[in-house]
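Archive entry: two folds, one per protein. Generate the first.
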Amino acid sequence: MKKLLIVTVALLAGSVAFAKKNCTDEPKEKWMSEADFKKKAEADGYKIRKFKTPGTCYEIYGTNKEGQKVEIYFNPVDGSIVKSEIED
């Protein structure tokens, strides 16, 4: 039972650590402000429905300029895309 508990705790800890993306190692003082980032994303053709800051990323849910639904993780320092999921 003790081994099962240890394995379960280790798996859960790994899942939590994996759930947060690591988009930058830079301190928050070097991040683009949320307002400036949103303006940049909208200028790039994204319509933001939901905005989040998980871990060290900026994340948007919305649509791209082609109208496709997207979930995208961005580096908050330079606005570059770290991970992108597009729904057809």
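Generate the second and append.
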Amino acid sequence: MMIAMTSVFARNEDCPVREIGEGLVIMAPAGDVTHSLENIGAFIWQQLDGETSLEEVLDAITAEYDVERSVAETDLKVFVGELVAGNIIIQTS
């Protein structure tokens, strides 16, 4: 899946989410798989609100964490691809 930085994603409302400490546990819609998100994963999840582009998410990551922009962009695209594959987020534009 090719992911453009102008893409906008939203959390799948059919996925129950529970906060555990500073992380999140998310149940896939089918109820057969759980996903644990720690630190930066949970941070990214919170940014995926159906209005914020991945470029803006990347800006937030680089402002919050000490990481090279190019590395963060690559990792963000991989992470978003995994969330899409798990039906945890959906693309809105």
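Annotation attached to the second fold: The chain has a mean pLDDT of 92. Helices lie at 39-47, 54-64, 69-85.
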